[in-house]
Every structure is written in structure tokens, then in C-alpha cells.
Amino acid sequence: MLKNLVKKTEFYVALVILVIALLIHVRSGAFFQTNNILDILNASVVPGLFTVSTFMIILSGGMDISFPAIAALTSYVTVDVLNSINYEGSMVLIFVMAAVLGALCGLVNAFFIASLNLPPLIVTLGTQSVYRGLLQGALNAQQINMLPPAMGKFARASVYTAEDPVTGATSHLPAGFIIFVAVVILAYFILYRTMFGRGVYAIGGDLVSAERAGFNVLAIRYFLYIFSGIVAGITGIVRSSMNQMVHPTNLFGIEMTIIAGVILGGASLVGGKGSLLGALLGMFLLTMVQNSMLLLGIPGYWQTFFVGLVIILGISITSYRNLVAADKAKTLRDKSKEELVNE
Amino acid sequence: MSNKDTNIVQEESRKFFKDASFWRLAIILVALIIIFTVYNPEGFMSIANFQSMSYQLPEFGLMAYGVMLTMIAGGIDLAVVGMANLSAIISAIVMLRLAESVSEPVAIIVAVLVGLLVGTLCGAFNGLLVSRLNVPAMLATLGSHQLFTGIGLVITQGSGISRLPAGYSTTGRMLILDLIPISVIIFIIITAALAFQLNKTKFGQELYLVGSNYEAAKFSGINNYNVLTRAHTMSGLLSAVAGLIMLANYNSAKPDYGTAYTMQTILIVVLGGVSPAGGFGKIGGIVLSILILQVSSSGLNMFSSISNFYRQLIWGLVLLLVLGFNFLRNYMNEKRIAKAGKTAAETETE
Predict the structure, then answer these.
(1) A-chain residues near B315 (CB < 8 A)
(2) pLDDT for A218-229, tens place per residue?
(3) Region A34-42: what's the mean pLDDT?
(4) pLDDT at B147
(5) Count of A–B CB contacts within 8 Å?
């Protein structure tokens, strides 16, 4: 049991999280306070949602860097349209509208990637540019500070509130956290309890073999990119609610942190390996460190360097381990061949 | 040159000009020039416009060559902008420090050499990741771009570096014969060198082979590691030159200059006929698509109602269209070949 645990990437990431948390606590004395924990959980909602869909895509051997652009575009259009009709209804329609728009954006990605079989990174680089151009060029998007009332209510809705006994400052666990948990449970169910989820692992391992084994590769890939679009749409609304405004550009660039987190959590770069738990732990580690940089007095401009370093180290270690494993397999093969010849 | 050599040259150039995709790009370029000239004759066909175009063109043109080399080898380089900025930043710092103690020309020359070295090292780093560690080029360069940009941010503490010695910018923006910017001359020389290297040297042949079939290249005795490392190292060097030209053009260095160029360079290379799967592509096509992008970019400037953000939309759409068009062409070709094979098989059985 323990032996198996030690072999897993998740175990090490969790260990690093604990060590860094202790270090931060010793340096600043503020880490393990309920307020700080709640703040970090609060900050994990948006990256967490993105991590779920990005992990599934990387698992399938694909890539999507267009989700921040989709989130920005869909939340802007949704809020703008609903504002123009003075919408005062419930939150459900807002989420549904953003999700449908996100699904459409995801459908475009899926068409080029799955139907035309083009490289996912190049395609989403192109669509990302299109979505951003639509938002900032065609729609001439500016920051919107007036949100539909339901979004304000959603942001104030709190699952759990903690008050600092000394300063009296309060921290909330927002209702958005429930949505994050729901998406995680949904993704977990799809990945580990359905044949469809086995298919995601299978096409990440080997697309052709998966097809021959009877998986509907086209449908799975379409689902993944559309799902990513839907999650991006919902996340855009959650984030806009939490910030109490729609901002056209402040999500751009988050894709690198998300990818770094997924890789850190042990997902293989070429697909087929990794776990949802690992990806979420990786994301949590990065969010925690980013959030604690201020507590530790590290200037914010170190962040890009740190994310880049994590990606490079993560992919180098994974690739090195793959090379060693391939070498081992080869020597084993050669050895058994020799034995056959000797017999 | 012997008779045989002349024949080869003639043969090569004949093949080149018969290439359909080359002419397609040439027609697009001419059409764009005609449209913009008709729309605004004084504005577009002016020396000022051509000069402003030629200052900008080498910046992303050289980076596009870097992407081209790595894409022919079957990979990609998403770190060109990061390498260009990091080279420019370190070069600028060296220049400022040295200018305090030594004469200006010496400071500039040393700084330029340091900048080129930084780019080369960054490229070699990517090359090692891709070849020795077998990291997919997309992910390796996506990560290293972040790393290089991050190093630039840490060095500059998040802001830019300006107030360079005056001599650098004036030399870098010097006009040869009062007409052509020096950066364009550098661009032309590098283009010629690359054309020679791709078409006439062993390295060029090996690059295409590695890109079209990695395993076959390995078994035919090519050192794939060296070829890949060299392609990425050259990409780093080319990016460094682009970075130094940007340093002269803006008279400052910043970690987030030219962020739109990543997308633009990939568009150029794909439009120019390099397959993202590797193994194909001619430098002639790349030169034309660099010109197409510069002409349309300057042409769009004349429409005041089109904001800069529209350019992202247009470039993204064009990239998707080109990818779709290439897919359709391959699909039709495959169908035709399959049909031809079928008819041949039928006649044989008869």
C-alpha cells in the first residue's frame, strides 16, 4: 500500500504542497489561518475549473490554449446582451447562455482538430486569435461594471464564512466553489466510471489503436473540445461574478499556468497518462505559491519565470523517465531474444 | 561552374517556378498591392510607406525563418519572441554597463555579440530538450518561451530598458544609399544564406529527411539529434538578430514586445507552404508570405475604422482558412491517387 503510494506523482505533489505550506507558515505565520485557507480556495475556483477540462484534453493527447479567450468572449457577450434587455431573472439562464456560446466556440476547435485532423496547438492558437479579435476588435469590448443583479447575488452567496478573531476581517467560501466541485465530480464520473472515459485514456495512449479497439474517436474528441468550451463559458461567468465586473483581457495568459499545473500533476505530455487528482493538486500548488508570494515578500514579476521553470522541469523529468523506461524495455527485449537464440 | 552544375541550377530553378503554390502566393501578393494602390495611391505607393514597411518586416521575417527551420524538421518553435526579447534585454544591459567605461562603438559591438550568443544558447537549450530528452517541440518551446520571458521580467524587474547609447539606434536604423534600411540588407543576406543552406548543403537535405521520416532518417545514418539541435540553435540565432533589430527600432527592450508575432510567424510559415507535419516547404514561399503579411498589415493601417485588434481576428481567420484549404487539397489528391490506382488495377485484371 505504502509502496504504491510512494511511486505516485500525486504523493510527491501533495508532499511538496505540505512542505511549502509549512515554510510559508513559519515565514509569515499566517498560512494556516482559516482566512488564508479560504482565500486560497477562493483563488482556486477559476484555475480549478479550467484545470478539469484542460487535463482531460491533455490526457487525450490534445491541447487547448483558447479557453481564456473563450471565457472572456462568452462572458462579455452574455453580460452585454442581458444588460441590453435589463435582465433581472435567475442565474440559470446566464450560465446556460454562456455555456451554449462556449460550446459553439469549442465546436469550432473540435471541427478543425478532430474532423480535419490538424495539430491542436496550432488550431487553438488560431482560434484564440479569432476569439480575441472578435472581442476586442469587432465588439470593441470595454470593461463592464454593471452586472445583472443575479450575478451580484451569486457572488455574495457564501457557503461558509470565517471571521478573523483579531482583525475582524471576513473571508467567504463563495457559491462558485460548489460549481467547481460539481464539475470535478462530473469529470471524475465521466473519466473513471464510463466507457467514454476509458476512451479518453485510450486515444491519448494511441489514437489508431483506440479506433481499432472500437472507440468512437471522433465523438470523444468532439466532446472534449466542446466540454472545454462549456467549462470556459461557465468559468467566465463565475469569474466575472466574483470580480463584480467583466474585463476583456485580464484572463489572458492564465493558460500557461493551467498547463503547468496539469503537467506538474504528472499528466504525460503526449497523452494517455495522469490523474485528475494529480492535475488538481498541481493547480493547487501553483495557486498556493502565487497567492503566498506576497506573504513571503517575493515581487510579482517572478511569477512568469516560476511557471516557465515548472513547465520545463516537469516535462524534462517526465520525458527522461519515459526514455529510461523505453531503454529498460529494449534491454529486456534484447535479453529475451538472446535467450531464445541460445536455446 | 561546370556544365553539369549549370544544368542542375537550371533544373532547380525551373522546378521552383513551376511550383503551383509559389505562383498562387505571388498572385495574392500582386493582387493585394493592386487593391491597396487603387484604394489609396498616394498613401500606399509612397517611399515613406515602403520604408516603414521595411523597418518592420525583418523583425518578424527573421523569426518566421526560425519557425520555418524547426517546422521543416517536423517540430515548431513557439519561443522565437521570447528568445528575441531576452537577447535584446541582455544586450541592452551590457551596452549600458559598458558604455560607462569603454567607447561607444566597442560597447555596441560587444553588446551585439552578447545578444547573439544569448539567442544561440536559448536555441541550443530548446534543441537539447527536443532532441536528447525527446520532449515534443511544441511543449518544449511553449514552456521555454515562458521561461525566457520570465527571465527577462526578472532581470528588468517587470519594466523596460531604455536610454541606450544614441549610436546604436542611429546605426541600426541607418539607410543604405539614403533609401534602404540596413536591417533589410541583413534580412536579404540571411535569406540568401538560408536558401543556399536548405537547397545546396548536406544539412538542408538532412533537415528535410528528418522532418519527413524521423525513423528512416535515423536508419540512413543521419544524426537526428544534431540536425534537430542545429535547427533550434539557428532559430535562436535568427531570433536574436530579430531582437537586436527590434532594440534598434524601438530604442528600448521589454519582455513583452512583439507578443503578436508568435501567431504571425506560424501563419507565415503555414501560408508559405511548410507542412506542420514536417518535411516540406521552400524558402521562396516563406519570403512571399512574409511580404504578403507586411503588405496587408500596412494596407490595413490605411483603414482608420479597422482597429489593431481586428488584425488578430484577420490573422487567426486566415490561418484557419489556410489550414482548411491545405486539408482539402490533400484530401482531393489522395482521392485522385486512390481512383487512379483503382482504374490501373481494373485494367490489369481485364
Answers:
(1) 129, 133
(2) 999 999 999 999
(3) 82
(4) 93
(5) 149
- Residue type at A343? E
Q: At residue B1, does pLDDT exceed 50?
A: no
Q: Which residue has the cell 479506433?
A: A211
Q: Which of A120-124, B49-53, B134-138, B295-299 has the highest mean pLDDT?
A: A120-124
Q: pLDDT tens, A255-283?
A: 888 988 888 887 776 667 788 998 999 89
Which residues, at least 6 apart from A87, have a Cβ–Cβ distance to it below 8 Å? Answer: A93, A94, A148, A150
- Cell 472578435 appears where? A134
- Interatomic CA distance for residues A172 and A40, integer angstroms: 11
What ranges in B132-181 are assigned the alpha helix state H? 137-156, 166-172
Contact predicate A231/A46, CB 8 Å: no
Rounded Cα–Cα distance for residues A68 and A143 (Å): 16
- Chain A interface test: which of B81, B146, B304, B332 (most A C-beta within 10 Å): B146
What is the number of other CB atoms lying within 10 angstroms of the CB of residue A293? 16
**Contact check, Cβ <8 Å, A119/B140:** no
Task: Give me the CATH code for the B3-303 domain, please.
Answer: 1.10.3470
One-letter amino acid at A67 equals F
User: Nearest CA to B198 among B169, B236, B227, B162?
Assistant: B227
B276:A119 CB<8 A: yes
According to the model, what pLDDT value does residue B90 have? 94
Helices (H), chain A: 2-7, 9-28, 34-59, 67-84, 91-110, 120-133, 149-156, 176-193, 195-205, 207-212, 217-243, 254-264, 276-296, 303-342
Answer yes or no: are the C-beta atoms of B77 and B124 closer than 8 Å. Answer: no
B63/B122 Cα distance (integer angstroms): 14
Count Cα neighbours of B188 within 13 Å in the Cβ-side half-sphere. Answer: 8
**Cβ neighbour number for residue B346 with a 10 Å cutoff:** 9
Q: Residues 6 or more apart from A292 whose CB is under 8 A from it?
A: A20, A24, A28, A31
* Mean pLDDT (whole number) for A154-178: 74
Mean pLDDT score across all residues of chain B: 85
Q: Where are the domains of chain A?
A: 2-302
Domains of chain B by residue range: 3-303, 309-350
Enter the DSSP assignment of A113: I
Region B226-251: mean pLDDT is 93
Residue type, B244: L
Q: Which of B138, B146, B309 sits opposite A308 (nearest CB)?
A: B146
Q: How far apart are CA A300 and CA A253, in angstroms?
A: 14
Query: In chain B, what percentage of residues exceed pLDDT 90?
Result: 30
Question: Class assignment of domain A2-302?
Answer: mainly alpha
B101-111 burial, b for 16+ CB within 10 Å, e for fewer?
A: eeeeeebbebb
Kindly state whether B261 is in contact with chain A, defined as any CB-CB distance less than 8 angstroms. no
Query: Which three three-digit cell numbers place residue A213?
Result: 479497439
All cell numbers assigned to A28 = 509569515
pLDDT at position A179 over 70: yes
Angle at B119 between CA B117 and CA B125, to 5 degrees: 100
Q: pLDDT of B92-123, one tens digit each? A: 999 988 888 888 888 889 999 999 999 999 99
Window 303-332 of B: residues touching A by CB (8 A cutoff) are: 306-317, 319-320, 323-324, 327
Long-range contacts of B297-306 (CB under 8 A, 24+ apart): B297/B56, B298/B36, B298/B44, B298/B49, B298/B52, B298/B53, B299/B32, B299/B35, B299/B36, B299/B39, B299/B44, B302/B36, B302/B39, B302/B40, B302/B43, B302/B44, B306/A137
